């Protein structure tokens, strides 16, 4: 398990045929009885399917069974910008690193906006820093 939320959890996995590491977001259908939340999951899948950008996690497939919805995505190995920042001396980043992160973030958001997608939850915890 990589993380857990109110409606499900995220697990790491390996695609059996390719050996590729993946992240599997598992939503419990019993917790998705609220129409708005169910629509949000469907919207998330549709949006991820439309996007193809180096800084946006890739959707591989969506699988359903009687109990769960599984969203199989690219596994991004790193840590949240929030955790990364907290681990730094004086909780500060070098200015060049800040510029690099902001440039990538702005390019990613511009791409999303060009596809008529608004993120609506941009925060340090939702930005992954990789090597």
Topology of helices and strands:
Blueprint: E1 3-4, E2 8-14, E3 21-28, H1 35-50, E4 59-64, E5 68-74, E6 79-80, H2 81-86, H3 95-114, E7 128-129
Antiparallel strand pairs: 1-2, 2-3, 3-5, 4-5, 6-7
Short description:
With 131 residues, the chain is α+β, with helices and mostly antiparallel strands. Helices cover 32% and strands 26% of the residues.
Description:
Strands 1-2-3-5-4 form a 5-stranded antiparallel β-sheet, covered by helices on one side. 32% of the residues lie in helices and 26% in strands. The protein is of the alpha+beta class. The longest helix has 20 residues, at 95-114. The mean pLDDT is 93. It is globular and about 50 Å long. It folds into 2 domains: 1-75, Phosphorylase Kinase, domain 1 (2-Layer Sandwich), CATH 3.30.200.20; 78-131, no CATH class. The protein is built from 3 helices and 7 strands.
Descriptors:
Phosphorylase Kinase, domain 1, globular, 3 helices, two-stranded antiparallel sheet, 5-stranded antiparallel beta sheet, 131 residues, alpha+beta, 32% helix
- Would you tell me the overall average pLDDT? 93
Question: Helical stretch count?
Answer: 3
Please count the beta strands (DSSP E, at least 2 residues each): 7
Structural class: alpha+beta
Order of helices and strands: EEEHEEEHHE
Strand arrangement across the biggest beta sheet: 1-2-3-5-4
Tell me the major beta sheet: 5 strands, antiparallel
Helix content: 25-40%
Provide the low-confidence segments as ranges: none
- CATH homologous superfamily of the largest domain - what is it? Phosphorylase Kinase, domain 1
User: How far is the first residue's CA from the last residue's CA?
Assistant: 22 Å
CATH fold-level label of the largest domain: Phosphorylase Kinase, domain 1
Q: What does the radius of gyration come to?
A: 16 Å
CATH architecture of the largest domain: 2-Layer Sandwich
Shape designation: globular
